[in-house]
Amino acid sequence: MAGKGRKAKVAEAKAAVPAGAEAGREGWLPVAGFGLVVLPVAASVIGLLSMQPPAPLVAVPEVVAAPEESPLPLHYVDLPDPLTVAVAPDKPRAEMSLALVVRGELEDLVPLKDRVMVKADVVYAAMLQQAQDLVVEGAEGAALHSELPLRLRDAINRTIGTPDWPEPVVEVLITSLVMQR
Prior knowledge:
- By secondary structure, the chain is of the alpha+beta class.
- 51% of the residues lie in helices and 18% in strands.
- It has helices at 6-16, 19-50, 106-118, 120-136, 141-160; strands at 74-78, 83-86, 93-103, 169-180.
């Protein structure tokens, strides 16, 4: 008997089990396998659905009434030449393209264009001075984008504004910015 092979032992074990018991065990296995897979998933889904939703991560901003907008249309004007700032050989150099936002009717903008053309060098010098001051202070990309437009707008308005129209430029946009070291 010691020399019996493995196949013979398996055949003996099968013969020892009654025929009805083996058929019942085969029908039970798929149900148990299905239950082992589906029950944890169903419990997880039920647990997730019964939980309270998490609080929002950001505070909901309060609704603030918008200031009254002027009925005059906005006009966007690209400046033809980039503003280049180089204050010293060892300091960063910045070159930026700018656009101006002007509010008004086109017929009101014609005299403004004439004033700008007459004072173009003064306007450019005022803009350059503001940009140089900011670069000398050590401002780089993010600071230039946040601070320079306000300074440029104020410098331009001081140069071309009139008592009747003190702030013709509503906003200055930096449309491209290149910083070099």
